[in-house]
Amino acid sequence: MDYQDFCTIPITELGERLLTEENLLREIIAHPQSEPAQAVLKAADRLRALTVGEEVHLRGLIEFSNYCRGNCNYCGLRRDNRQAFRYRLTQEEILAAATLGARLGYRTVVLQSGEDPAFTGEGLAEIIKEIKKLGLVVTLSVGERPRRDYELWREAGAERYLIRHETADPLLYARLHPGRSLKERLDCVQILKDLDYQVGMGFMVGLPGQTPATLVEDLRLIRRVNAEMVGIGPYIPHPETPLAGCPGGTMEQTVLMVALARLVLPHALIPATTALGSINPKGREAALQAGANVVMPNLTPTQYRTAYEIYPNKICTGEEAGECRRCITGRIVALGRRVSDGPGHNSEWLKRRGRGEVVGSSGAI
Ligand code: SAH
Ligand code: SF4
After folding, report:
1. What fold does the segment set 56-246+296-354 form as a domain?
2. Which contacts qualify for 316-322: CB closer than 8 Å, 24 or more apart?
3. Model-level pTM?
4. How do residues 41-98 score in pLDDT, each as one tens digit?
5. Which residues have CB under 6 Å of ligand 1?
6. Domain boundaries along the sequence of the chain
């Protein structure tokens, strides 16, 4: 297939076709400004309109602890960063944030943290049960945990789990995550799938050592796993990490990968990430116009926001939760889109549940 053929393929088939054309796909990824790359952005926007429509789903993000036993070489919350001011919200503070979220009209809250063992399986299950009483959908993003914890949380009512695979290259993964492996990460993904969570995978763009070939593997992996959600953000260097001083990912590269993710997973929930908004004031808008259909405004109590410094210069650390809600709604409406008032589940996950199927048990990743 060359670029001319590419223009004649129906957009619903474009993702699959590109995955069979490794060289063309790598070329496109290597040249985000090129004509074919621009065509990918447009195709992804059209496909998004066709499959998931004009609605943008909002998820209120509660960053409830920045203690972390992990030591990822790119992240400001890594265990060895002694400069970080550590905090953890009480159960009451978490519930107050969720209550505020419900009042502001969010239908989902995302509970995100470092890997903090102080929140036990049972302890977090209690919190989830209380949040469910508010009528909210609960998404978790708390890293790698034993199967039993994932079970307890699913039983407590959590429906979604974000666990980015970070990079599909096992060697690069091992270099970035001391003492950990891509296999262990994917084992967690498999367990979460088996437990019938909607699973969010994803990766950073511009990681040191990443190549267009790696990014093709990232697309293959999210496609193979059939991720219900895909979070893609630029890598942003943090000064208190071993990778300080490395260049970060660009908006153009990241938005292109968002568009390609839409093409390979037409029904996925794809956020316009805060990291993208942090490297460019129009980053989230660009993603929303290239396949994204989710935004995650911040609900963390304002006094803790700057301390949740995964990467530097994060946006929305000064605003009150209500301001974030208004700001993001304005931006979505300005694009001619609308804020969803529904729960915003992945439609294929809903269909499978309607048929009584659990997908994850069908086979290993
Ligand atoms: N501890 C959990 C959730 C919090 S980290 C976990 O690791 O899964 C959430 C995401 O932040 C990570 O998956 C990673 O992709 C992203 N992240 C971490 N450091 C970053 C950096 N320096 N630049 C951009 N994104 C980063
Ligand atoms: Fe901890 Fe997650 Fe950061 Fe890794 S990416 S150091 S697990 S918060």
Report:
1. TIM Barrel (3.20.20)
2. 316/274, 316/277, 321/60, 321/97, 321/100, 321/101, 321/104, 321/297, 322/104
3. 0.97
4. 999 999 999 999 999 999 999 999 999 999 999 999 999 999 999 999 999 999 999 9
5. 74-75, 112, 114-115, 141, 143, 163-164, 166, 204, 233, 235-236, 238, 275, 310-311
6. 56-246+296-354
